[in-house]
Amino acid sequence: MEKVDVVIIGGGINGAGIAQCAAAAGFSVLLLEKGEVGGATSANSSKLIHGGLRYLESGQLSLVRKSLSERRSLLTLAPSLVKPVPFYIPVYHNSHRNQWTVRAGLSLYALLSELDPLGRFKSIPAVHWSRIAGLKLQGLKAVFQYWDAQTDDKALTQAVIKSAESLGAKILQQATCESITHRRDHCEVRYSQRGQEMMLQAASVINASGPWVNELLDCVSPPMAKEEVELVQGTHLLLDISPPDGILYLESCFDKRVVFVMPWRGKTLLGTTETNLEHMNHHPSPTREEKYYLLGIYRHYFPGCGSLEKLEQQIVGTFCGVRVLPKHSGSTFESPREISFLKRRSHPRILSLYGGKLTTFRETAKEVVAWVEALIGKRTPLGNVDKIPLG
User: What span, in angstroms and rounded, lies between the C-alpha atoms of 68 and 78?
Assistant: First the structure.
């Protein structure tokens, strides 16, 4: 029976990052992805590598600082995939966040970026507001410009996977984990690929299956306790409208949430929503309410776009990602975005990931590999992920 140090289940950005980091640390690695690498949640994000300005409102300063540090690293390691882009925040007379609140938030954001040149922000003079084509000027009090970064999330995930393969990791697509049996000194993992069933022994198992994290734990024997979570769908609409020069950071006219209007492949990308799901659909799709929520916000800020019906006709694409958030008594908007790790004393060789951000996948991978090293010991490193270019 084949034996490996680390089996990773899930080929999204976190699974890819862990495969790369573990292989670089000298471990034998097998990754199982039931579909296409980077083909689910990691292909359906808002395409941003960012600190998360809005997370300052819920006091997640550690997450913002960590994200800004990772933004700086990815701009260096993957310059063809991660590019700086200007963001614009318009503030109106009836905005929930007034211009002094926004200025204070941007000042803290700059401070947390540790003097990174991208930490700079400025107030745009009123004479230049009309350069943001179509933006509503009535009631506009201020416009701020700051910097973050944008990426092709699927391409980035696949670049990380290629790096992992070059370091010796074995990547299997269209491979479904059927069962995990936890033994005292190893786990027996049974999986199928294109009709063939196989079994292997793993010294450690990483559950990086994203919104299917608890579904995978149902395959564990003896049974393993799960965490209560909320599954939150985020929908994006691609509009056949000339894109803005940068990314607009807009306050929803329906609630206090933040929605982005972004350039994407010559068109305008609009997102995202936060819709709680009762259960995980393997092919999530946007609801009618989500479409009209996003279109309503766009029309509010760009009144010259025409009627809602006309705007709906300009939808040329949609996609949905599903986030895993901890069960939380407040609003989804206020839920913490830090990744959490599930470890059970009853199953010491299995680690499950709940949540996480595209931006901080490398930091997540390092934490997981530190757990693997504590469990089975260190190996002779093959490379340094902080110096390996991507893409």
Answer: 15
